[in-house]
Write a sequence for this structure.
């Protein structure tokens, strides 16, 4: 809700509630004079006009608040909100004018059409910018919800989820995003999966289109069933093996060998939950059920992060605090906050 006090939101609201009515009032007065409408009628219509815009502005604000608090960014569109406000004005004005459909009504309609055509090119860019900001807030809410589900999983299982659901012979079958479903109030969907089959088996593949909205990246037009919300997974070079067995994958950027599946307790996060990344906004989307995430390793170039072209990517840390980091973040800082026990100093932007 901090967006409601942002300069962008306040500017849009002030334009809608004050600037537009004042400009429209000036146009209305000019039209009335040209049409020879008496002054008393003008004053009555102008008051009705202001009452209509006040109602429209309140409705617009209420819809915007609903949009910002919605978990589904596609449920409401800010450009639709703007058009609803205009439509509300068009409907309310004739009802409250009480002067019939004569010259005054015609003047009112002319005024509405005139200033709407004049101001739409000015207002819509503000609305589009506000919509982008709102979608970024929704992205932040989504990763926080995912982190909270991870912590509930930890409280129940006494360990964080592994990076994947593995077969008995250690092959990754399904993503951690599937394992997290019961903790996201998606038990019914979880029960539909065959956990002993890979993500792209005929049965499991049919469930990709049922991706929960919490995994969808707001503001991105992506194919159905793909997500940008991913964890960092330590990827070992092929053929490397130790006494623990052949190495493959491990979550949280672990720099020591462990046989998958790896389940960690919070006590193993030696760098501290507030300094260890949990989920980040990857640049490239993956099918949400596929055990594919952001590859990380000491000899692997740092991945490209950020799906939205605004120079930022959203992250959530193990303590559930969220923030936006710049895509040009210092590589040393990024590596430090990816690893869970590297004991590196990190100055988080």
């Amino acid at each position: 809700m901090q967006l409601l006090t942002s300069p962008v939101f306040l500017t849009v609201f002030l334009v809608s509630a004050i600037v537009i009515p004042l400009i429209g009032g000036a146009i209305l007065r000019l039209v009335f004079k040209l049409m020879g409408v008496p002054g008393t009628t003008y004053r009555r219509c102008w008051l009705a006009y202001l009452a209509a815009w006040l109602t429209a502005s309140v409705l617009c604000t209420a819809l915007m608040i609903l949009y910002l608090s919605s978990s589904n960014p596609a449920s409401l569109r800010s450009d639709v909100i703007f058009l609803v406000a205009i439509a509300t004005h068009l409907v309310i004005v004739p009802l409250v004018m009480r002067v019939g459909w004569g010259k005054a009504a015609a003047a009112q309609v002319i005024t509405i059409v005139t200033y709407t055509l004049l101001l739409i090119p000015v207002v819509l860019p503000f609305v589009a910018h506000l919509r982008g900001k709102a979608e970024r807030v929704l992205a932040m809410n989504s990763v926080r919800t995912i982190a909270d589900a991870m912590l509930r999983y930890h409280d129940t299982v006494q360990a964080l989820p592994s990076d994947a659901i593995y077969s008995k012979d250690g092959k990754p079958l399904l993503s951690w995003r599937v394992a997290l479903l019961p903790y996201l109030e998606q038990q019914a969907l979880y029960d539909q999966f065959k956990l002993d089959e890979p993500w792209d088996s005929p049965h499991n593949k049919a469930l990709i289109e049922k991706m929960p909205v919490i995994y969808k990246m707001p503001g991105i037009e992506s194919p159905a069933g793909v997500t940008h919300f991913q964890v960092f997974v330590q990827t070992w070079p092929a053929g490397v093996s130790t006494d623990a067995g052949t190495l493959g994958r491990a979550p949280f950027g672990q720099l020591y060998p462990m046989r998958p599946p790896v389940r960690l307790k919070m006590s193993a996060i030696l760098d501290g939950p507030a300094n260890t990344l949990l989920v980040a906004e990857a640049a490239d989307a993956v099918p949400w059920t596929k055990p594919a995430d952001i590859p990380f390793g000491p000899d692997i170039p740092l991945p490209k992060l950020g799906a939205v072209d605004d120079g930022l990517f959203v992250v959530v840390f193990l303590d559930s605090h969220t923030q936006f980091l710049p895509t040009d973040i210092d590589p040393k800082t990024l590596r430090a906050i990816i690893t869970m026990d590297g004991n590196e100093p990190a100055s988080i932007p």
Notes: The mean pLDDT is 74. Helices lie at 7-35, 39-69, 78-97, 103-157, 176-179, 187-192, 202-205, 331-338.
